[in-house]
Task: structure prediction
Amino acid sequence: MPNKYLQVRGIATYVHHSGPTTLPGEPPDTSRGQTLVCLHGIGVSGASFEPLFPALEEHHSVIAFDSPGHGRSGELDSLGSVDSMATHAAATIAKLQLDRPILVGEDLGAAVAIELALANPDAWRGLILLTPFRSSPISEATFESTCRTMQGKERRGFPKHLYGSNASPEMMRSGFIEGMKTDPRARFGDMQACRDWTASRLNELQLPVLIITGAEDVSGNLAEADRVAQAIPNAERVSIEKTGHYLCTESPDTMAQAIRRFVGTAIQ
Result:
């Protein structure tokens, strides 16, 4: 898959993109259809969206990037707050020279997308929110376990229970390997950002909004996604059967169908 590094606010930021490879320092080619910018979730990276690329790139331009401290981007720590993540995402999108893309955000990335949309509503064509939350569903036990892992007092766990019945052992093994590329400090910082953020002013969002969840997601986000959907005027809600929390990995083709339909009918 084509990729490149960009210097964004002094941080080497790793970008995954569809379309042809472009010269260093040049933005990706986004001439195909609508441009979708993907914002990843807690403790993972832009690679979590890669299963979606083959199903979308024939008709649209797809971009994801690793937030600082995640995947192959620079730094070791998370930016630590949704506001800081939104600032970095906005700077990355500006560096990519994108004109009114559609934001696709997963859990923590959905919070970042909401903040971007509220700060500058005319800059985006729409929002696609994957397992969004209004207030953090992370339990105290999970938070404390992540803290112990960061301190070297506990082995890094693997959230097998967050996968749905569609997930194969190979899929989960690949997810574990990808998750190992991000330092536990970044995951802990992400969780802190989630705990400190509560969605507000959702009723002010006037963009087309699609909310997608997995029907077998046990993370606590299903009820949260319902609250978000109820608060956003005219938000569309989709649930994908036999799928847990990791929508793009578990059901990429069904996800892509829902996204293509939404973009084709709701985005002007």
Q: What stands out?
A: The beta strands are 3-8, 11-17, 35-39, 61-65, 102-106, 126-130, 209-214, 236-240.
